[in-house]
Design a protein that fits this description.
Elements lengths: L5 H5 L1 H18 L3 H39 L1 E3 L8 E10 L2 E10 L18 E4 L1 H9 L8 E5 L12 E4 L14 E6 L14 H24 L3 H13 L4 H22 L1 H9 L2 E2 L6 E2 L1 H6 L1 H22 L2 E2 L8 E2 L7 H15 L7 H39 L2 H12 L1 H42 L3 E5 L5 H10 L4 E9 L6 E6 L1 H5 L10 E3 L4 H7 L6 E5 L12 E6 L5 H11 L4 E3 L3 H47 L2 H5 L3 H37 L6 H29 L9
Parallel strand pairs: 3-6, 4-5, 14-16
Antiparallel strand pairs: 1-7, 2-3, 2-7, 4-6, 8-9, 10-11, 12-17, 12-18, 13-14, 13-17, 15-16
Length: 728
């Protein structure tokens, strides 16, 4: 007996070493060893990569906070104590916004902002590397003045941040009137160059947990049960010899240690890359600062170590032996499914249904928890249905004398764990694809609508506005405009029951837009799409008035309109505007909406990054599970050609044992995904559900179910001629 061996009391360490050696030897000699090795290695690498993503996320956000604090201006209300002037504005290249920080030193010894070796000289601008690259693409490197160089990484929230430090050519005459702030230096947390739709460390970690960790765990479950029949028999044997749970655990650890350690070592490659250089993430374009990961290298090493320990622990937990109180024959965990799994699935469904009645805030958490619970337990529910269906198939085969259906039905009823592992890929895969589509539509509809506006307006109509625009700045701006441009004044009146927008300008400038030249304000109608979009927020009410001489600066409320006879002058217009007045904004009607919508839409890239990785892990789990089942089916079906006298039995068994249950899983997953996605859209009141995407996913997985059955039958058919009876 293992538990009462005399050597155990004399030298307890020898028993544990021997059990570990048994596991290491089993890893080399057990049937299906090669497949299980690669499966465990892939699962371990997936979990290690997920742990690395968690650790990198924490390190990155910590570094961002530190740099945000270091560069934040210390604002003061006293002009006598101030050492510099500071002012923030926003601009964009295309649909990518960036911050523009105007600075003006007041004392010669005041230190420059972090990231700058010196203060910019009058009329100079320092740009971040990403912003400089974008400016070159738009031929606007000198938009804010003479390009003086790039900002060092320690002055950026991340290497991919787009920001500029600009010193005007002339100091402001009245800093308070022009919205400048007095500062005494830098070194406090300040909301500077914030994203339009920021995501926190908690939100990023949640996305990693749902879209990467869950598929990685599914892959580990599948990998652990590859070739489980032989291990189950071994566990029953050592259990009969008196082995405890700890004894079996040591053997399982020994068997799984080499592949799991190899998988963790694979994750050292991206870890080393993160420590060696800045890494640009695919799809998103975000650049991870290597300084953050180097500072947090103990956390990265700890995350990989925890990943290895957790993988081995889950391997031990997932391989358990059940003892029956009423039968002497041992049974393994694959012979039946726990009854609590369908109950938990029902709890998840109820949580989803009642989340709409929860208070705002907890409702999202309840919805997500119910979603994870439902999808995690749904494969077991479908396996329970397949067990009942398998019994009916077996009875039908027995009555009709069909050995293929009889064997397939009994296998289906006897091996529900196989159905769980195979169907989990189909169920979660369909749900993941459909929900990525819903999230994409939720974030992308606004961007598409906004893009249509900019296409209507084109590249010949610009709004120029600033709350501190002066008469002198308007004259300088008008003087520096390129030939073929026209300048008008826009005054908005959004209040009351009849909102309107008034245009005023010289008669030639008005005629360039095919507008009349009345001496007093006159309401007009126009077919010009640019003017239609300009007046759309004001119920289409547009009035015009011709002026002689200077534009009525006192009535413009900081808004100008610039039109061009030909497209392609945006860079010149923007350069003239920023030289005339720091902090001015130049855009086309609807462009602000486009930028905001595109920023919201860019969140899709993170979903695609994490969701695509998770889907790849699920597909890998499906391939491994199917390959493992091919090995088992091939060994079990090979003798049947001798017993039945034909090889048609292979296709019959594969059809009813593999294809039919997977088709049932696909159908039920499609129905539940439909309900869940529509419920999600209705609850949030945004986004749309795509039937073609769901139909395409369901069709693809249905074809995969048929292919798995055919390949299993073909594998068994090829193995049949080589089968020889053995004394086992």
């Amino acid at each position: 007996m293992i538990g009462s061996h005399p050597a155990q009391t004399r030298r307890p360490g020898r028993l544990w070493i021997q059990l570990l050696r048994v596991g290491l030897a089993a890893a080399r000699t057990t049937p299906g060893t090669r497949l299980r090795f690669w499966a465990l290695m892939a699962a371990s690498a997936a979990l290690a990569l997920t742990a690395l993503a968690f650790a990198t996320t924490t390190a990155t956000f910590d570094g961002r906070t530190q740099r945000d604090t270091a560069r934040g201006p210390i604002v003061t209300g006293s002009a006598q104590q101030a050492t510099a002037l500071w002012k923030e504005a926003f601009d964009s290249f295309g649909t990518s916004p960036h911050g523009v920080i105007y600075i003006e030193p007041l004392t010669p010894k005041s230190p420059p902002p972090p990231g700058l070796a010196r203060w910019p000289r009058p009329g100079e601008a320092f740009l971040s590397s990403e912003l400089a690259r974008a400016a070159e693409d738009y031929n606007s490197l000198d938009r804010y003045g003479h390009y003086a160089g790039t900002i060092n990484p320690q002055g950026l929230r991340s290497p991919s941040e787009r920001i500029a430090y600009v010193r005007p050519a002339h100091p402001p005459a009245d800093p308070t009137a022009e919205s400048w702030q007095y500062i005494t230096g830098f070194g406090q947390l300040f909301p500077m160059n914030r994203d339009v739709y920021p995501h926190t460390a908690v939100e990023t970690g949640g996305a990693i947990a749902v879209l990467m960790a869950v598929p990685a765990l599914a892959l580990l479950v599948v990998a652990t049960r590859v070739g489980s029949a032989t291990r189950d028999r071994r566990s029953q044997l050592i259990n009969a010899l008196g082995a405890s749970w700890a004894h079996r655990a040591v053997i399982n650890v020994g068997e799984a240690f080499v592949p799991t350690a190899a998988g963790t070592l694979v994750a050292l490659v991206p870890a080393a890359l993160l420590l060696a250089t800045d890494v640009r993430l695919p799809v998103t374009g975000y650049i991870i600062n290597t300084a953050d990961t180097r500072r947090a290298w103990p956390e990265l090493v700890g995350a990989l170590t925890v990943s290895l320990v957790l993988t081995l622990l889950l391997v031990v937990i997932l391989h358990r032996v059940q003892r029956s109180k009423t039968a002497t024959r041992p049974s393994t965990s694959t012979s039946r499914l726990p009854k609590w799994r369908p109950a938990l699935c029902a709890v998840g469904v109820l949580a989803i249904a009642f989340s709409q009645y929860a208070p705002k805030g907890p409702d999202v958490a309840i919805f997500l928890a119910g979603t994870v619970l439902m999808w995690a337990m749904l494969p077991s529910v479908i396996a329970q249905l397949s067990i009942a269906n398998g019994k009916r198939i077996a009875n039908s085969g027995y009555r009709k004398g069909n050995p293929g259906r009889l064997i397939a039905g009994r296998w289906t009823a006897a091996h529900p764990g196989v159905l769980v592992r195979l169907s989990v890929v189909f169920i979660i895969g369909i749900g993941l694809i459909s929900h990525l589509q819903v999230w994409n539509s939720r974030l992308g509809d606004g961007a598409a609508a906004a893009q249509r506006i900019t296409q209507r307006v084109g590249d010949t109509f610009y709004t120029v506005h600033s709350s501190t625009l002066t008469s002198g700045a308007v004259k300088n701006f008008s003087r520096d405009l390129p030939d073929g441009t026209h300048l008008l004044v826009a005054t908005t009146h959004p209040e009351g029951d009849h909102p309107r927008i008034d245009l005023a300008g010289s008669c030639p400038d008005l005629k360039s837009l095919r507008l009349p030249c009345p001496a007093t304000a006159q309401q007009v109608t126009t077919n010009d799409p640019r003017l239609e979009e300009l007046a759309r927020p004001y119920a289409g009410n547009l009035t015009v008035r011709a002026v002689n001489g200077d534009l009525p600066v006192s009535r413009i409320s900081g808004s100008l309109i610039v039109t061009t006879d030909e497209p392609g002058h945006r860079a010149e217009i923007e350069k003239a505007a920023y030289a005339a007045h720091p902090g001015i904004n130049v855009d086309t009607p609807g462009e602000t909406w486009v930028i905001g919508a595109q920023q919201k839409n860019s969140l899709n890239n993170w979903l695609f990054l994490f969701g695509g990785t998770g889907l790849a892990l699920l597909l890998m789990a499906g391939l491994i599970s199917a390959a493992a089942e091919f090995v088992r089916v091939r060994a079990g079906l090979a003798p049947l050609s001798v017993l039945t006298g034909n090889d048609q039995v292979f296709r019959t068994i594969a059809l009813w044992y593999l294809t039919v249950p997977l088709l049932i899983a696909t159908a039920l997953a499609t129905v539940i995904t439909n309900w869940h996605s529509l419920f999600f859209v209705v609850s949030l009141r945004e986004g749309r559900f795509s039937w073609p995407v769901l139909a395409t996913a369901a069709t693809g997985f249905s074809l995969a179910a048929v292919a798995i059955g055919l390949l299993a039958a073909h594998s068994a058919q090829r193995a049949a001629p080589f089968w020889r009876p053995k004394a086992d």
